[in-house]
Design brief:
homodimer, 212 residues, alpha+beta, Glutaredoxin, Glutathione S-transferase Yfyf (Class Pi), Chain A, domain 2, four-stranded mixed β-sheet, 4 strands, 8% strand, Glutathione_S-Trfase_N (chains A, B), Glutathione S-transferase (chains A, B), transferase activity (chains A, B), GST_C (chains A, B)
């Protein structure tokens, strides 16, 4: 049975799940969530897909999961891929996935939303400035870690990479400039050269171009 | 060997790990981290304990872990406790632990810090107001989920509870009022009645009283 991922192109959190599914070789298809039309906040969505009111949602037969980190764990459980090769690596992968959810993707996603997807007169500049400061500390941590490493954990691609990259390929400005962080820049290039890699707007339906 | 948890009382993220260790019955001891003296930002801390510059850090012999969610997974791996009783419950536990890291504890911790631990003339009111709005959505999600349930997942205490409660017992104001959320309120009371439960300022060294 084909796995369905309810997602939309603008969501880096959905991208983390979609990219794990795609690169794992599992049979999956995206189902468009009209986030900007209010879909995730609707009664139907909360009742049928996710009471948390968030995308992505993965449906694989009877299994319905949300939270990109948990969907990534499910891909690992199902295929043996991206989870690290030892118990130590497995913990280190989870450590970076949690760090990403806590310090990188959560804050990057919110800041990008405020700067690009709110009407100009509704953008809370003091919040944007504050979040950009916090994000710089996160970029610095990741950049320093990637100095001398090809991948975040061990010798190959893991969920740590697939999580931390979630918002970093998007073209909309949110204060992240690849050239400022050379080790992140090289790692993003390396990851994008993996067979089967796709940009979020190519991997999932929906993009700002649709609403232009 | 006694497990050491580098932590401090004011940290709800550390509390999530400390409470899991305490209620699991594992042999552990807290090691005070002088966060307000700058310890987590020091070169020594980043080199010896955590390059991410964050507490808590757990040390169990050769195993050194950070991120409260990963320490909780380690407690489950070691003791069989708090991880849910079926694969479905295990995924549901992780779903709430990720949700907490993403939407509840991360934002509650930051907002509480800004409102209580910064000098009054440095508190960014627009950021505080914005974060309180986002947190209300998180409280509403958790409160609705706990309607008719004793615990977040299944019939007993899991890491989902031990994660989501991280910042909710603290006395410092950050916009969370227990009486506004009756199902959260009842669940916090239920959790605090578990044998061995302790308040964060009783479980870990360091509290605002030390700096008064």
């Amino acid at each position: 049975m084909t796995i369905q991922l309810h997602c939309f192109g603008e969501s880096g959190n959905a991208y983390k799940a979609a990219l794990a599914l795609e690169l794992s070789g599992l049979d999956w298809e995206p189902v468009f969530v009209d986030f900007f039309g209010g879909a995730t906040r609707s009664e139907d969505f909360r009742r049928d897909l996710n009471p948390m009111g968030e995308a992505p949602v993965m449906v694989d037969g009877d299994v319905k999961l949300t939270q990109s980190g948990v969907i990534q764990m499910y891909v690992t459980e199902t295929t043996g891929k991206f989870g690290g090769t030892t118990p130590e690596e497995a913990r280190e992968v989870m450590r970076w996935v949690f760090w990403d959810n806590h310090k990188l993707s959560s804050q990057a996603g919110m800041t990008r939303f405020l700067m690009n997807f709110l009407p100009e007169d509704k953008r809370p500049q003091p919040v944007i400035d504050f979040m950009q400061g916090r994000l710089k500390a996160a970029y610095a941590t990741l950049d320093a870690h990637l100095d001398g490493r090809d991948w975040i954990v061990g010798d190959g691609l893991t969920n740590a990479d697939l999580s931390c990259c979630g918002y970093l390929y998007y073209p909309e400005p949110f204060g992240f400039e690849r050239q400022d962080w050379p080790h992140i820049d090289a790692w993003l290039t390396r990851l994008s050269q993996q067979p089967g890699w796709k940009h979020p707007y190519a991997l999932m339906p929906g993009s700002p171009a649709d609403r232009a």
